[in-house]
Amino acid sequence: MDHAKTLTMWEGYVDWRNRPAMKGCHGGVVAASFVLVVEILENLAYLANASNLVLYLSKTMNFSPSASANIVTNFMGTSFLLALLGGFLSDACLTTYYIYLISAAIEFMGLLMLTFQARIPSLRPPICASINRNTSCNEAGHGQAAMLFGGLYLAALGVGGIKGSLPAHGAEQFDENSPQGRKHRSTFFNYYIFCLSCGALIAVTLVVWVEDNKGWQWGFGISTVAILSSIAIFLLGSGTYRIKIPKGSPFTTILKVLVAAFCNSLFPKNSISNVLDTRKSPQNTTEISQEEEGHGEWKEEIQTEMNDQKFIDKSTMNKAAYPSLHCTVKQAEEVKIVVKILPIFMSTVMLNCCLAQLSTFSIQQAATMNTYIGALKVPPASLPIFPVIFTMILAPVYNHIIIPFARAATKSEMGITHLQRIGTGLFLSIVAMAVAALVEMKRKRVAAQSGLMNSTEPLPITFLWVALQYLFLGSADLFSLAGLMEFFFTEAPLSMRSLATAVSWASLAMGYYLSSVIVSIVNHITGRFQRTPWLYGSNLNHYHLERFYWLMCILSGLNFLHYLLWATRYKYRSTEPDDQRDKNDNTPSEAQL
């Protein structure tokens, strides 16, 4: 009876009431569907403000264009970087279920503060209409700035927790021990990006129109209601979720292995030949068997490569320099996996630095151009609608047409590997930056020929030219983000999966921060050799934005070569079920890029 009950339970998972999760009752497509609906509302709340925030800061809070751009990139970078905190807490002590609820409540409070500030005139500086590039407007006072940044960074903390918990929560609903479960999980990540786009579509059309025509208080108010609604829908699906039991801090394991390896290298008590062998050491076999009690999915994770990363192997010596630092092979292998995926992570930062331009300079470019399509006036912040619609079309096509064809052609479970997908995104970012530079050259040429270099009147050139760079960068985001999230979730050890998925967002964060750093460095260097820096003043027509975009194009090309160096050498962990993996542990599959 007990054995039959065990077979119907999801080992290592509980329901929302902390009872054992049962097969047939918890997890699956229905549970993941609640997550997807919640993501639509969550991304609507976040992107409605982030996409138009640069104009709010420059026109309402009176910051300069470059200062506004840096504030937006820092805000978005912090939001994504805090995803690491959400992922860490989900793996270490709380669960993805509770982290989402706590984070959504925090974001709600931040948006509420911003709504009140946009509603009450005394909480904002007076409106400034100066077009002189050397004249500064009255920026927000200390109290006004404190409320602005308090609301922004409360929202950022909430967004980070959600990004670090929600994707992993959805992916955990599928059984990775079956090919069908792994295919459903891959489909989930594709439709997660689709739902991101659905939320973005509403944000950059309806909400941005409301902000530009009815007032920012209404835009912030819609976002506040959206995040509150997402909490209600998430709770509605509570009975269907299977929730992974936290297994302790992943950072503790990583730190212990690295310190042990370092100490054993400096103060060896035996030769390297006594390093524990995963396959041959009886002591280790017993040790792993003991650890596996209650953790049957450990055999899902171990992928031994004793010939590589020998420094980490030293942490498993039989006679450690300090007995308290003795590490198991399981712990060493987990750290090896983390070290292996780090170069791939670093290679995606430059792509996200390019994506940061969509929320800053690209919107400011469009704001100087003719934003009419026929009789319809389109808000500049609605420009992302083009890549959003393209993503909403391409995501189902990719999942239901391209992937099945690729699986049939390659006779493999993945069809198109994660690294191939990420590489496609990196290449498209190079094209996007080249297109952005050419479009900016054309925009400035029209401004000069029309005698509107110092005017606030719209230039006689349609903003649809700027949509081209949005199209390429949006496509790059589709390929890279879904591939990156699935890659990290699949390759990471079971005890680190929420944190690993959050690393995808950390890459975005580092990209936004890097964008701010590059802007500051470019201004510092060019300011020393020219009268004014490339990106200085309140008039975008006097910027040398085209040179900045060419610089980004060159850096993206160098980054792509760096990515190819690591991707062609990467070896995937096995995706076979448990029984087959035990027979093939010594033959890891290689990535075909």
Automatic annotation (TrEMBL):
CDD domains: MFS_NPF4 (cd17414). Belongs to the major facilitator superfamily. Proton-dependent oligopeptide transporter (POT/PTR) (TC 2.A.17) family. Belongs to the major facilitator superfamily. Phosphate:H(+) symporter (TC 2.A.1.9) family. Its main location: membrane. It is found in: Membrane. GO terms for molecular function: transmembrane transporter activity. The chain crosses the membrane at residues 28-48, 69-89, 95-116, 189-210, 216-237, 341-363, 383-406, 418-439, 459-484, 505-527, 547-566. It is a multi-pass membrane protein. The keyword Membrane applies. SUPFAM superfamilies: MFS general substrate transporter. This is Protein NRT1/ PTR FAMILY 4.6-like isoform X2. Keywords: Membrane, Transmembrane, Transmembrane helix. One of its GO terms (cellular component) is membrane. It holds the Pfam family PTR2. The keyword Transmembrane helix applies.
